[in-house]
Amino acid sequence: MNTDLQFTPRHSLLEDAQGLTAAAIQAALGIHLLRAAGLITGGTAGVALLLSYATGWNFGLTFFAVNLPFYAFAWMRRGAVFALKSFVTVTAVSLLASALVTWLPLPGIHPAVAAILFGVVAGVGLLGLFRHASSLGGVSIVALILQDRLGLRAGWVQLGFDVTLFLIALTVLPLDRVLWSALGAAILNFIVAMNHRRDWYIVT
């Protein structure tokens, strides 16, 4: 009997709810750490942070708006469930990240600490989102699609986008803040690249 089949884990509604909630909280906390130290990250979260620094716009609303064009693409390529879960997750992260400014003030946090903690916390949160068929929208949706279609690791795809974003960030942020931001993004993408692998979900 051929047992070389792809294994797609199925989660109950309760399992999805708790998994996505925990992952959204981790992602929001990571973004809050970055913002407290004046750092950015990659993906649409990084775009939203950079825009908020440059214009004074509210991060939560900007993050929500930046992701809107990507949901149709996610729906067409990954299905309605993935698109809906991503929409719910991005909305939750937008609200939580805004609330944490008041609920969890972090004055004086060192950018190195913020970068390292962000990379670990948000990296694990992103893995949780992927595990439960969701994402933080935008670039992570494209990264997952490329991983499925071409076998490219999602973490490395995101890293390529991040490099471009950080080069643009040099026109807005001091060099040291961009370098610390790059450290946080590198840690996050390394965690995703090392742990989010299709071959680990294969039954042999």
From TrEMBL:
Its chief place of residence is membrane
Q: Which residues form a coiled coil?
A: none
Q: Transmembrane residues, as ranges?
A: 33-51, 57-75, 87-106, 112-130, 150-172, 178-195
InterPro entries tied to this protein = UPF0750_membrane (IPR051461), YitT (IPR003740)
Q: Name one Pfam family in it.
A: YitT_membrane
- What's the name of the protein? Putative 5xTM membrane YitT family protein
Keyword Membrane: yes or no?
A: yes
Q: List where in the cell it is found.
A: Cell membrane
Alphabetically list the UniProt keywords: Cell membrane, Membrane, Transmembrane, Transmembrane helix
